[in-house]
Amino acid sequence: MTEHILVTDEAAVRTVRLNRPEKKNALTLAMYQAMTEALRDADESDSVRCVVIAGAPGAFTAGNDIGDFAKAATGGIPWDGAAFSFLDVLVRCRKPIVAAVGGVAVGIGTTLLFHCDHVVIASDATLSTPFLKLALIPEAASTMLAPLRMGYARAFSLLAMGRPLPAAEAKDAGLVNAVVPAADVDAVAIGAAREIAALPPRALAVTRELMRGNIDEVAKRMGAEGSHFSELLQSEEARTAFAAFFARKK
Q: What is the domain extent for residue 14?
C-alpha cells in the first residue's frame, strides 16, 4: 500500500481517497495498485456495501502521472498495465461505487466516472480527457460508454477534441448525479453512499447487475483500448507529445 492512497471504513462504507495533493493527485503505478487492492478487498468483504472514491480539495485527480508515461515511452520503466488492472477491477466490482469529485478530473479521473453508480461533483469542477493531445487514446471503455451515455457529439467533443466539460454540463449530459458547492462534495457523497449501503444488499446487487448490462462486452472494449494504448505509448508521436508537454512546464 502507498501513503498516496488512504483507505478507511466507516460502518458499511469504504472510502478510497487519493492523497497526493502536491501533484493534484496524479496517479502513479503504485497508486493504481493500491486502489486495485482496496476495491478487490471491498468486493470480497461482507461488511463493505458501498465504496466512495474521493480526492483532495481542488483535485480529484490530474490523471496518470505524465512522468510515468514519458518513462514508459522511452523504456525507462516497464508499462505493466497497473492502470488497466485497476480499470478491470473497477468495472467488475459488485459493490456500488460513489465518486466525490472536486476540482480537476483529468483523463482517467473522468473516464472512471462511467463505472460509478452515483457521482457528486463540485460546482467549480471540470472534467477533461486530453488523451489525443498526448497522441494516446481514451480508456476505461469510454469509447463505448461515452457515446451511449452522452450522445456521439458530446462524446467526440470530450474524448477526441479534449474540450473541458464543466460540472453543470456534465450533469446535463447524464454523467453526474449532483452538483454541489465544493465544500459539500465529500459530505454529500458519503451521505449517498450510506443511503445506498442501507438498501437490501441482494436486491440491490441484482438490480445493479441488470442495469449495467453485459460487463464482458465492456471489458472486451477496455481490452481493445488497452492494446492500442500500449502500442501508441511507444510511438514517436507520443514521445514528441510528452517532450512538448514538459517543455511547456519549464
A: 5-180
